[in-house]
Amino acid sequence: MQINFFAIKLEFDKFQINTEQYSPERLAELRNKFNNTHSFFKNGSNLYISNKDGEEDIDIGNPTEVSVFGEHEITASLIKHIFFRTFKDRFPNYTPIDFYPFRFFSRQDKDDIIYTSLPDNLKNKIAYKKLIEVQLRLINIGGRPQFGFIINIKRNWIFKKTCEELHNEGFDIVGLEVLKMEDLPGLKGILAPDEEFIGIVREIKGHKAIVDTNEGRLEFPLSNLSIRKTKYNIGAYLSFFISEPKSQEILQIIESKRSEIYNAQNLYTEIGKIASSIFNHKEGHNNPSPILFQNKDGFCFTVDTQMCAISNSILLKAPTFIFDYSATKTESTSPDKGLTNFGPYDSINFEPKSINILCICLK
Question: Which of 185, 192, 213, 354 has the most CB atoms around it within 10 Å of its CB?
Fold first, then answer.
């Protein structure tokens, strides 16, 4: 059996990393000065520093020795940061939407199910695209700990119009759920803006929206809001912009493709290609070489592009179905055949004979 787990190869049991006492002020100071070249993360009361691209003579903190698996949380944080920075260096045109789980959208038009069905002025502004998710995991294989990346593929909506643009177009956003978009400090252009669901628009006043939130009715600039990326919201906008029949046609395309895009064999093939692209050098397709993920402090690793194969298994025997209390009426091939021959299992030991069932459903 193969699982979508790609093992990380570490050639050492211990490593050195610089550290100093953590404080929010010190973290902000270091990120302000060195965020382009260094990574900083907190663990316990300590601040850990990883020099990815800075000058080697930059002296921050004091070196300390860390056990790879004995202090696995520190190791995991370091792997995540080195992976993130290496990805950004190799693929500068991609803007991840999350640091962890690390998620990014495919940039290929073929990975947008509705691309060819949209008018040109909506292409790449609205899309239903492949979303790639990479998560770090520490698992146990054969009694030994093993770091590795899990790759998953999903499909999500992309909607790149602000509520200000929609309002100027004449689209009514009153009654729709909205998100507040905000660039994270120091991460503009590095990560996509953070999107937070805040509530439902109740009124438009000039360039601001009055929104029902958990904290009451609040005002937000329309330029900082986007409609929530739901089938209903996007379907409503498509109906407004291109017509109701065309909107329904586009939504139906997505439904008709679900069995194809989530087919196990298709996912297996796609995940393998993504792993090769992320963890191998682009050149040399016939004999690809692994990327060396590393910082300037000596921490480095490569990633196996073959899915992890699990060999331990157990043999499951076909069950025997029993249809009476004394176990004399049995059927080993089919429960339907047993029901036909013997009727349902019933015993004086089981009460009550009549049961009440409560079903709770959506409205």
Answer: 192
Contacts of 298 (CB under 8 A, 6+ apart): 15, 16
List phi, psi (to 5°) of 27: -60, -45
The per-residue pLDDT of the chain, averaged, comes to 90
Q: What tokens were used for 211?
A: 């929104």
What does 192-244 look like in DSSP terms, one character per residue?
A: PPEEEEEEEEEEEETTEEEEEETTEEEEEEGGGEEE---HHHHHHHHHHHH-H
Summarised one tens digit per residue, pLDDT across range 22-37 is 999 999 899 888 988 8
What are the tokens at 140? 């146990």
Higher pLDDT among residues 91 and 310, named by residue: 91
CA distances from 196 to 141, 173, 199, 262 (A): 38, 17, 9, 28
Return all residues near 138 (Cβ < 8 A) that are at least 6 apart. 69, 72, 76, 145, 146, 147
Nearest alpha-carbon partner for 154 in 133, 136, 124, 126: 133
For residue 348, the model assigns a pLDDT of 57
Radius of gyration of the chain (CA): 27
What single letter denotes the amino acid at residue 225?
L
At 232, the amino acid letter reads: Y
Mean pLDDT of 74-103: 93
236 — alpha (psi -120 to 50), left (phi > 0) or beta?
A: alpha
Backbone dihedral angles phi then psi of residue 51, each to the nearest 5 degrees: -90, 105
Residue 308 CA to residue 208 CA, distance in Å, equals 52
**Could you tell me if 178 and 163 are in contact, meaning their C-beta atoms sit under 8 angstroms apart?**
yes
Distances (CA, A) of 159 to 43, 96, 173: 36, 15, 14
- Give per-residue pLDDT as tens, 89-98: 999 999 999 9
Give the CA angle between residues 40, 61, 101 to the nearest 5°.
15
If we measure between CA atoms, which residue out of 135, 124, 211 comes closest to residue 176? 211
Which of the two residues, 47 and 349, has the higher pLDDT score? 47
DSSP-derived letter for residue 45 is T
Tokens of 245: 């029949």
